Amino acid sequence: MTHFICITCGTQFPASERPPDSCPICADERQYIGAGGQQWTTLEALREGHDNEIRPLETRLTGVGTRPGFAIGQRALLLQSPGGNVLWDCISLIDEATVAALQALGGVQAMAISHPHFYSSMADFAAAFEAPLYLHAANRRWVMRPDKRIVFWEGETRGLWDGITLVRTGGHFRGSTVLHWPEGADGRGVLFTSDSITVVADLRYVSFMRSYPNLIPLGAAAVAAIVAAVEPFAFDRIYGGWWEKVINTGAKTAVRESAARYIAALE
Questions:
Q1: Distance (Å, rounded) from C-alpha 133 to C-alpha 110?
Q2: Tell me: the pLDDT tens digits for 225-259?
Q3: Please, which residues have CB within 8 angstroms of residue 227's CB and are 6 or more apart in sequence?
Q4: Domains plus CATH for the chain?
Q5: Prior bond to 68 cis, omega within 30?
Q6: Is the separation of the CB atoms in 97 and 52 below 8 Å?
Q7: Percent of residues, the chain, with pLDDT higher than 70
Q8: Cα angle: 140, vertex 142, 147; to 5 degrees
Q9: How far apart are CA 6 and CA 22, in angstroms?
């Protein structure tokens, strides 16, 4: 029995003798099945040709990303805080070296993931650190590998500790979530946004989409709701879902101005 992993989105499935017929996450209009058809791999195969880079990003923040890139290519973020460390988002490759590196930084006391495209090998990561895994309940149907450590939270916000807060923005998915870290960026505040509020090529701006690969936009009301969801939180920096997608300063203004530009273009 093998936990097969979708090559396109990196999501791990329950153990089975044969690969599933298809990946529902990729069959959805927000993602895609590659031109070569549905393809699968395994953790064992990934470990043969890939490893994970552990990269310090700022004080008490470390990135974890797979090289060479795999699936969507996102990286996870380990936030170190006095009340416990939080692993934000997830990747498909987990190995002994990665677990040891994160344990050396204090381990993982909780995990939280922005949206289904980044669920990847979340069950294996949660098991390795015996950590609760926070997912918004609105995204429950997209969990391909259920696990006893998953905590489905409801409502608009979920506090963890030390002021760290999960915020439901909706938009990309009904349960799309960002994480607010008030002590980040030297106390100016950090927002971890992934695809909920994506940092674009021009690092002065962000954007908002139902589907990024298929270029399906969001409506004005959805974009306004995203901005309203994060407005109560102070943040000067945004970390998107990839190494280079960072707005180092002026991030809250960037969100406001980007939303106004986006809505004006729709009109």
A1: 6
A2: 999 999 999 999 999 999 999 999 999 999 999 99
A3: 255, 256, 259
A4: 5-266 (3.60.15.10)
A5: yes
A6: yes
A7: 100
A8: 65
A9: 9
Round to the nearest angstrom and report the end-to-end CA distance of the chain.
52
> CA 61, CA 37: separation in Å to the nearest integer?
38
**Strand 177-181 versus strand 40-41 pairing type:** unpaired
What tokens does 103 get? 């344990």
**Which residues are CB-neighbours of 154 under 8 A, at least 6 positions away?**
136, 137
CA quadruple 79, 242, 232, 168: dihedral, nearest 10: -90
What is the Rg, in whole angstroms, of the alpha carbon atoms belonging to the chain? 18
> What is the DSSP code (8-state) at residue 92?
S
If 0-12 CB within 10 Å is exposed, 13-18 middle and 19+ buried, where does residue 232 land?
exposed
Query: Which token pair is 106?
Result: 């204090």
> Tokens 């058809």 label which residue?
37
Cβ atoms 9, 31 nearer than 8 A: yes
